[in-house]
């Protein structure tokens, strides 16, 4: 009996793992679609390598940093051991209350890990040096992300304080978003983005690919949030999927309404980012919200997207794909929403949420800055002007993503 | 024990929900691939908005219209309440015989709802006004679809009469297909489609995207039909997946053979539509058929596709993506097939099926006509000639889907 | 109780079936991306038809050839009956120890069957005659693949000898790979590939599509290997997913490192093939390996990819997509790895593995040669020079995959 429940729970978690996996394709396509054809291979290369690096660093050190064990409860830092060490009962219902095996636990978390660095990838697109990005990502996904995650999900001090983050509005999305802000600030904008005090639109090269990306991210979020229940409990998992989908839809609606009323615009990429904002927004409290809560959280997230994109432009922070607005602005919003809506709402929870947002933010900003500043002083952050103008594909990869393009340039 | 079965059933239904969700990406890609690059954003915009609108209207009114409760059994119309109202036992095995929770029930049905309007999207592509389409879709998906669905799945009069439609050859696909016919008739053909009495081929801009779309639709159909079992019952679900896949394959084969023999043509888009026709065809009776039945239903559906596409052309009904042939022609065929093949075959069942097809058809044709005629008299159905020639992307969305295109036009 | 376990097991197998299904889209996109735009429809047509043919031949003869029943244990060949014949207990836990129903069994295996022929499709791309390919594939997937599979999975002589192949490094991937080698050798290289003793790169037309393909293949491999456990056993399935993902990541890393160190190249398509090589490599022993084993198997597979691609070029075997390196080279490596790493390692197992590799290789090479040689002598293997230069899409399908292309040519 115990074994059957265990099997079903574990099965659900494995499927959710596969769904989170495919989000990496979603990110990749969203990013290349919203950027120029001449940098396509470069962006895909980064995203594929991050997934590879993310899985491998999480195998060797990340999982042990994030879940160091009961001895480090309430703490700041812990480390279990190098590599994966199957516990005696790791494949039996004795592990994790029969919710999944040790291996499923690892793999689900590993798929999450790579996400944080992937978020950065979009924001720094079209101008960062490949080697610099790979080094930064390896450190960020291998060390920074798991330490931040440990503070809550590994039983660290934020967990003890009462901070709540169901599936990672802060622990995943803001962790990526903070690094994106710092990267963008240190890198500077793409050539031509801000000239003579004016903001110019650098159009992406394929809206269809971006749309596929957004759809795959929503699809993957069934696993991202659904799997964060950490069991197949019918009531909680089904509620989570419903709040997730309603918030996503409301996010799209909010972005549509605000961008239409403000700019008389039927802007598809804004709606897609609105959907993603709705997804990020519900992520911190998907298991706590009712239907109306989810609708409002999403609707506001969609509106935030439109305002955030505009504000970043005015601050001359050039984020080609809107990653900061989606993952940081809506990540903060979603984390706060846990204190405003749903079953945990209240002033004391708002305070807890603010502490969590602040602690994680401080840690991520500081560590990103140190890593990136060091890289700037050593190997440099940015490709040369000529490389940027001609495209990173030709210079970093010696080829082009599409043959038609190479013909035109030939 | 009861709880474990419940958890497993609910898990299956949640996965099927995710699979039906991804069909919306399938429709989007199928449609843009088979149409011209200059209308790509417009089509994607419509499909994304339909999904958003579909989920939200279904949340607020649709689910209550479609499943109004036992009091309305045998009736024409009923309404439970605005929004979602979790029943006392909505998350326990007491709900729906332990097949799923109230939330899973809602979300699975919500993903279905948006499908009907999406079907229309393809048929009216490249010439309908965006605002008109959005208003039509909101009414159609929010009110018409759930009322029609209630007649059978909500326990209405067609259910009482003995009409059978397992997963919606009529209730989903024909409901969309009838609206597509009326829309196309009222809209008229695209400029250049029928000139000097000749039918000209307006080539789609990306066969790869259409192919991805068709594959994703087949993939999603694992959930569309598999989930319509409404439980994870091993015997029925596995039979349904087998009949579904065999009919899909046979549909592709049928379209290939007929189009090759008739036109000496190796036409990929015809085969893809043949596969989709096979899927629509098996949908009404996927749980009733044997292997040979499924093969024949699919094979005939594939042949119907080729003839239907030709017939619509001769009737000067311009359906850019073949949506009417796939969803209406094969939807009717599949519904009739329940009386011809499999375990319910017989003259009295054929009669029942005809009554269902006729009743739903009459309701959908009438309501589509009233809505669209009203819209034509008020805000208009169609974009201007100039907008149509230059492309809806530039005029309705102020941009283009691909940058190469904008360069050419610059 | 027995029924619940049965339902859960069967559910897992059905999901894995859907995942293996989507691999066919993965193969299609990988192949078209790595080849030229003018042959895109042709490649998609082949892949769609193979899936259709694969499912239908497996229904009518393949399944019965591959699993002929206990009477043929230890044998070379057997045949149960035409079509599918539901056993008395085929839908109850009495079938297959309660791991799945007869129908699930069939459909999971049917999705595997089409894979072998699909592998060939990539290697022969851009020059094979469509009719020739369809005839070859029908025979290969309908007769050769199931007979080879019977030798191990159907209880044949290789099973008796102790040959081990968990999910088909040899039985699926090498079976396709051997046919690819023979086809390529008999077909000859594409025009322009080897001129004046030099190897020229014929660039693919869309790296994004190839990347989507590789991601979908990895995604599908969750089902390919995960489903090959043939139950939802939590310990084994979760181990298999972990070894699979670690080997895939290590394969990408291996290809990256070797191609960077050897050529100073950041070659995305090499990394993607490295990932696929890692997946093929782990497939024979995914259930036997530890974490380090999986890492090393993948890392070596990634390195093998780089060397194999170079070696085939030097042997003037023109494989446009690297199918032989991925499926044959890494298929052999993965099969041998069962004797080198993990819980079955040992000299006697290496010998068993070599016998299996040799027996399957001999059978596939011989039968491919006979079929293809006969086709060459009758209808011919290769399109005309003019057709090849102008593109197979125009000549075999009368259209082009992209309208921009047709405009250029108009």
UniProtKB/TrEMBL annotation, chains A, B, C:
Q: Which UniProt keywords apply?
A: Ammonia transport, Membrane, Transmembrane, Transmembrane helix, Transport
Membrane topology category: Multi-pass membrane protein
Where the record annotates domain Ammonium transporter AmtB-like, the positions are 11-402
Q: Which GO terms describe its cellular component?
A: plasma membrane
Which GO molecular-function terms appear in the entry? ammonium channel activity
Question: Which stretches are transmembrane?
Answer: 12-32, 44-67, 106-125, 132-154, 166-187, 207-224, 236-258, 270-288, 294-312, 324-347, 353-375
The record, for InterPro entries, names: Ammonium/urea_transptr, Ammonium_transpt, Ammonium_transpt_CS, NH4_transpt_AmtB-like_dom
Q: Tell me, what is an example of a GO biological process annotation in this record? A: ammonium homeostasis
Q: Which Gene3D superfamilies match?
A: Ammonium transporter AmtB like domains
Q: Where in the cell is it found?
A: Cell membrane; Membrane
Q: Which domain of life is it from?
A: Bacteria
Under the heading Pfam families, the entry gives: Ammonium_transp (PF00909)
Supply the SUPFAM superfamilies for this chain. Ammonium transporter
Assigned protein family: Belongs to the ammonia transporter channel (TC 1.A.11.2) family.
NCBIfam families named in the record: amt
The name this protein goes by in its record? Ammonium transporter
What taxonomic classification does the UniProt entry list for its organism?
Bacteria, Pseudomonadati, Bacteroidota, Flavobacteriia, Flavobacteriales
């Amino acid at each position: 009996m115990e074994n059957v429940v265990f099997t079903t729970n574990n099965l659900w978690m494995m499927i959710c793992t596969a769904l989170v996996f495919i989000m990496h394709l979603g990110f990749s396509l969203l990013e290349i679609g919203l950027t120029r054809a001449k940098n396509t291979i470069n962006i895909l290369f980064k995203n594929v390598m991050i997934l590879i690096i993310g899985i491998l660093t999480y195998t060797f050190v990340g999982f042990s940093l994030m879940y160091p064990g009961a001895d480090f409860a309430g703490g700041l830092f812990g480390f279990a051991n190098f590599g994966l060490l199957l516990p005696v009962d790791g494949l039996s219902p004795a592990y994790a209350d029969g919710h999944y095996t040790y291996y499923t636990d690892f793999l689900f978390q590993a798929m999450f890990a790579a996400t944080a660095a992937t978020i950065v990838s979009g924001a720094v697109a079209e101008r960062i040096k490949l080697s610099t990005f790979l080094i930064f990502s390896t450190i960020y996904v291998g060390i920074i992300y798991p330490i931040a995650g440990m503070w809550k999900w590994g039983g660290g001090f934020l967990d003890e304080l009462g901070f709540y983050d169901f599936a990672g509005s802060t622990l995943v999305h803001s962790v990526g978003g903070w690094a994106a802000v710092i990267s963008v600030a240190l890198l500077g904008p793409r050539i031509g983005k801000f000239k003579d005090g004016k903001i110019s639109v650098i159009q992406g090269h394929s809206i269809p690919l971006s749309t596929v990306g957004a759809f795959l991210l929503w699809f993957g979020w069934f696993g991202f949030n659904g799997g964060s229940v950490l069991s197949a409990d019918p009531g909680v998992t089904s509620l989570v999927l419903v709040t997730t989908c309603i918030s996503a839809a409301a996010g799209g609606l909010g972005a549509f309404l605000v961008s239409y009323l403000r700019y008389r615009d039927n802007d598809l990429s804004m709606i897609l980012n609105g959907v993603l904002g709705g997804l990020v927004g519900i992520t911190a409290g998907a298991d706590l919200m009712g239907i109306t809560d989810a609708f409002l959280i999403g609707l506001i997230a969609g509106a935030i997207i439109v305002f955030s994109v505009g504000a970043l432009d005015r601050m001359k922070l050039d984020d080609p794909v809107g990653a900061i607005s989606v993952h940081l602005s809506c990540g903060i919003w979603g984390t706060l929403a846990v204190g405003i809506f749903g079953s945990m709402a209240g002033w004391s929870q708002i305070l807890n949420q603010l502490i969590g947002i602040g602690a994680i933010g401080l840690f991520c900003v500081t560590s990103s800055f140190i890593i990136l500043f060091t890289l700037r002083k050593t190997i440099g952050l940015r490709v040369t002007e000529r490389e940027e103008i001609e495209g990173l594909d030709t210079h970093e990869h010696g080829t082009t993503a599409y043959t038609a393009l190479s013909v035109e340039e030939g």
